[in-house]
Design brief:
homodimer, 195 residues, mainly alpha, Arc Repressor Mutant, subunit A, Tetracycline Repressor, domain 2, 2 domains, 10 helices, 69% helix, DNA-binding
DNA sequence: TTATCTACTTAACAGTGTTAACCTTGTTTA
DNA sequence: TAAACAAGGTTAACACTGTTAAGTAGATAA
């Protein structure tokens, strides 16, 4: 295994276990039996390393979603499955999920924006599904791309509230998730008989 | 003005202008013409100072929402206004908004959880409105508290995607917001004629 | 053999949060 | 009046942080 890979593995491990704050260059290097400066031979700086981790995390999430796709099902069913999978993945790998939203482009000015564009390819996956649904079934889809982002945003919101421990202790988490999914999906269904 | 207030003002200014990363104890102290250690006479540590800022930010957001309440309007109208106000506030004061979600309780173990409970009082404001709506009008409200959190989560998701610059450049921001609000509100309305 | 390239190291810079110990000042108490 | 005390600040230091410039050992190529 190359040192580059080892750095990625070790830093991911630290990041997931102890969070970003504890992920220091010297600590990573130490666990690779190497000096901190060696990391700079493989990554431009800490942001660069972080970005590599972000890309990996997004890829993992994307894979989790792709695995669950089933074109034989109706679009609304697929959306529900996607929603559940998204939330489930995020709650199962909270630290890894949060990496995705950890950094904003403007805070990494050194970084080419195209890197962040890759990140968006996952949205387009969603967009395709929604678009197809809009054509074939009764989904309320003005612009599939916007709808994809809307869905994504709402899912992220739900996850975010839970992960940030902002949920009231009186509310059972499962019930919250159920109701949220219910609400979110409802937004996509066309009312059969508009008043 | 007491030093404590001055510290709060200065650090908020730095936080809003340069972000959390640039907000260092020595920098804050310097602008107050004081040594860094003096801050520790008024705040337990940096987290404590941050928490004070979080509380202020939440209070601001809460005030913005309260100002816009209008019981003479229908509940669904009120929800729409609240949604718009929430998003508008967040986009107008992005740094301040993000402070609210910056820290998780578990990352501030020194901190009493009751502090974070205060934070939640704003949710309850929303919950009340939704509950009243559920009783009087056709709002789909199983549990008003859960509905409040669901609404909150979805709004935060929308804001989060925009602030994190994750929105596709092909999507006009206004259009995204409109569609998102549309989707979110739809989740609360009871279908008149269920199939 | 000499030169070059690769992968690493050492040493250092400038910055961070935080603490212990000290000093001044004004107020309270004997 | 003298002594004790507390409030609000200071200096110096510790143990970290990301990052860079310069140096070094070892393999490879001319």
């Amino acid at each position: 295994m190359s040192l580059r890979e080892e750095i990625l593995n070790v830093s991911r491990e630290i990041l997931i276990k102890d969070g970003f704050g504890k992920m220091s260059m010297r600590k990573i290097a130490g666990r690779c039996d190497v000096t901190a400066t060696s990391i700079y031979l493989h990554f431009k700086n800490k942001d660069d390393l972080l970005l590599a981790l972000i890309e990996e995390s997004i890829e993992h999430l994307k894979q989790a979603l792709i695995e669950v796709l089933d074109p034989s099902k109706s679009m609304i069913e697929q959306l529900e499955i996607l929603a559940r999978t998204y939330i489930e993945y995020a709650l199962k790998h909270p630290q890894e999920y949060e990496v995705i939203y950890m950094v904003r482009p403007e805070e990494m000015p050194k970084y080419p924006k195209e890197k962040f564009r890759d990140v968006r390819s996952t949205y387009e996956l969603l967009a395709e599904i929604i678009q197809t649904g809009g054509e074939n079934e009764s989904l309320d889809v003005k612009s599939s791309l916007i709808s994809a982002y809307t869905l994504w945003a709402q899912l992220h919101g739900v996850v975010s509230v839970i992960l940030n421990k902002r949920l009231d202790t009186r509310i059972p988490q499962d019930q919250f998730i159920e109701q949220a999914i219910n609400h979110i999906l409802k937004g996509f269904v066309i009312e059969k008989t508009p008043a």
